[in-house]
């Protein structure tokens, strides 16, 4: 009996960025099942918080599936230079080994990240926009300029043996973006005119009902605010939002204020944008040292830390001083950015600290001083209208965003599917379908080591944070008899409990009592002994302080 030969297929697989905002990593491939030639679109990171990932430095996508298919990866394509799209390139390139493609500004940032890891920048190839084509096995890829909140953003046109795909990347419809490419509707109509099989599309602002606004609509309002301010003005935004940095700097100039840049990431971004020739007309920058000798009402500090980052310039200013500069009563602090969900607590903490200093805090004020870099709902509908895809695959959004975006597409008769991380989608036929489920998740950068989300490292750290820690040490002689009583060290626990006696001493006494009645079999069995000591210590602590700490037992035997 003859078996039907497997047919080649076109696949889309999100490993990050689908079902969440951040950590973008998408895979496209064509070929026989399990033997597809692949391209990777973006390798980004997401950021940590003290509640769920204490002590972790960065969160990276789990690329185990990609590493197993390393030989099939034809290229890595970075759409733009935001951290959630390029931040993992230095951490992962060695594991993947494929050539990296990007436009000039993005390439500059990618090379810097590779250099931080001692990797050669020659692996990055600078590409020109459409109609230049990069051939990767059966796939042909072109960069199509698009407007966003960072220069030289691009969507991708991916030509396959079964039809054209368009990967939008992050985008907005802005024809006057201040810095970067304007949205070019005729160009997008051109690349879509012969038919598009699937549009894989940004979903971030699908719930925002009004059309997006241009970057050039907020400069006058910011300049007016700065002119009316009586003391020092501080403004914070994403360091990567070069257009906003320019908007803020030009507003400061208009208000007769000199610009001071604070924060390494902001300085690096301005430097990179200047190097590749996309940032012109930026006012002269004054050093922090010179600013100390200038009237307070004549400067504007442009600082990092718009998301409440603890070590950024804004947080340090809120706590007192940064590079000798300080804030006081009558100064003004502008958050010219939108707070990413999950970062609210950190931002509010800084706002309150600033308020305690007498600083007037201004947030985005309903869009008066901020416009989004992502397409709102009417703009997404416009993109659907331009591209006219057979299928819609929402990405770059939480599950609720993806689901709502599918509904929006259905209103125009476009077939869609909610595809989250790990869902491999078959795009070969006339409607999208799930081909496989790939095990995926997150990898934590903890110091200089990568650990899996399920490895237990962060789980144990959370347990210690919640419950405190106790270390029990016991020495046994050659006859398996205790040499003295066990001793206890506590960390993250109250030193005394309800008996008004040292917690460590109370636990030590209870442990000594247990050892006094323990039989020889228990004293000879390390596993059983450690288990019993742990149980006694936890029960004793609970009685004293109402908590069961994490207990580490160390049993040493003399031989």
Blueprint of the fold:
Blueprint: E1 9-16, E2 18-19, E3 25-31, E4 37-41, E5 58-61, H1 64-68, E6 73-77, H2 83-86, H3 89-96, E7 100-102, H4 104-116, E8 124-126, E9 134-136, E10 139-145, E11 154-160, E12 163-167, H5 185-192, E13 196-202, H6 219-228, E14 233-236, H7 242-254, E15 258-262, H8 264-275, H9 288-291, E16 299-303, H10 313-319, E17 321-322, E18 325-326, E19 332-335, H11 344-356, E20 360-362, H12 377-387, E21 389-395, E22 397-398, H13 399-410, E23 415-416, E24 423-426, E25 433-437, E26 442-446, E27 449-452, H14 457-467, E28 469-476, E29 487-491, H15 503-517, H16 520-524, H17 526-545, E30 550-557
Characterize the structure shown:
The protein is α/β, with parallel strands linked by helices and 559 residues long. The protein has three domains: 9-210 and 372-452, 4-Layer Sandwich (Metallo-beta-lactamase, Chain A); 215-365, Rossmann fold; 468-557, Ubiquitin-like (UB roll) (Roll), CATH 3.10.20.580. The strands form seven sheets. It has an eight-stranded mixed β-sheet with strand order 8-7-6-4-3-1-24-25. It is globular. The model has no long low-confidence stretch (mean pLDDT 94).
CATH class of the largest domain: Alpha Beta
Secondary-structure arrangement, i.e. CATH architecture of the largest domain: 4-Layer Sandwich
| Strand proportion | 25-35%
Q: What best-fitting shape do the alpha-carbon axes yield? A: globular
Largest sheet, in brief, is: 8 strands, mixed
Across the major sheet, the strand order is: 8-7-6-4-3-1-24-25
């Amino acid at each position: 009996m003859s078996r039907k030969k497997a047919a080649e297929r076109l696949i889309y697989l999100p490993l990050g960025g689908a079902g969440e905002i951040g950590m973008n990593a998408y895979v496209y491939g064509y070929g026989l099942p399990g033997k597809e030639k692949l391209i990777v679109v973006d390798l980004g990171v997401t950021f940590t918080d003290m509640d769920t990932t204490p002590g972790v430095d960065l969160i990276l996508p789990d690329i185990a599936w990609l590493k197993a298919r390393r030989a099939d990866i034809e290229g890595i394509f970075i759409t733009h230079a935001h951290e959630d799209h390029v931040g993992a390139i230095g951490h992962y390139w060695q594991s993947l080994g494929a050539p990296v493609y990007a436009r000039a500004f993005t390439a500059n940032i990618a090379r810097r990240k590779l250099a931080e890891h001692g990797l050669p920048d020659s692996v990055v190839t600078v590409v020109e926009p459409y109609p230049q084509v990069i051939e990767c096995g059966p796939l042909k890829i072109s960069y199509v300029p698009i407007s966003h909140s960072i220069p030289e953003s691009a969507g991708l046109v991916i030509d396959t043996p079964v039809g054209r795909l368009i990967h939008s990347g992050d985008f907005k419809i802005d024809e006057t973006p201040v810095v970067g490419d304007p949205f070019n509707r005729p160009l997008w109509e051109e690349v879509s005119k012969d038919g598009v099989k699937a549009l894989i599309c940004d979903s971030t602002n699908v719930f925002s009902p009004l059309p997006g606004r241009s970057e050039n609509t907020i400069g006058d309002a910011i300049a007016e605010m700065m002119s009316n301010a009586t003391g020092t003005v501080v403004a914070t935004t994403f360091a990567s939002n070069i257009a906003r940095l320019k908007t803020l700097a030009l507003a400061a100039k208009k208000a007769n204020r000199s610009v001071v840049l604070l924060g390494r990431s902001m300085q690096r971004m301005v430097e990179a944008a200047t190097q590749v020739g996309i940032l012109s007309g930026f006012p002269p920058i004054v050093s922090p040292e010179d600013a100390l000798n200038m009237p307070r009402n004549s400067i504007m500090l442009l600082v990092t830390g718009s998301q409440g980052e603890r070590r950024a310039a804004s947080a340090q200013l809120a706590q007192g001083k940064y590079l000798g500069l300080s804030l006081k009563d009558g100064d003004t602090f502008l958050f010219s950015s939108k707070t990413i969900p999950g970062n609210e607590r950190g931002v509010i903490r800084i706002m309150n600290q600033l308020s305690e200093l007498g600083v007037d805090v201004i947030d985005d004020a309903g869009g008066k001083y901020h416009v989004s870099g992502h397409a709102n709902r009417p703009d997404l509908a416009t993109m659907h209208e331009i591209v006219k895809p057979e299928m819609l695959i929402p990405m770059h959004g939480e599950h609720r965003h993806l689901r709502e975006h599918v509904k929006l597409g259905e209103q125009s008769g476009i077939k869609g599917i909610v595809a989250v991380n790990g869902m491999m989608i078959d795009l070969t036929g006339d409607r999208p379908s799930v081909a496989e489920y790939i095990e995926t998740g997150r990898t934590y950068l903890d110091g200089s080591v990568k650990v899996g989300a399920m490895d237990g490292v962060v789980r144990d750290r959370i347990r210690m944070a919640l419950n405190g820690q106790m270390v029990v040490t016991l020495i046994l002689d050659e006859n398996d008899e205790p040499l003295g009583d066990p001793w206890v060290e506590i960390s993250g626990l109250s030193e005394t409990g309800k008996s008004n006696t040292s917690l460590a001493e109370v636990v030590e006494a209870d442990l000594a009592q247990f050892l006094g009645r323990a039989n020889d079999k228990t004293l000879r069995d390390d596993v059983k002994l450690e288990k019993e000591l742990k149980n006694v210590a936890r029960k004793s602590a609970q009685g004293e302080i109402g908590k069961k700490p994490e207990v580490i037992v160390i049993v040493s035997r003399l031989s």
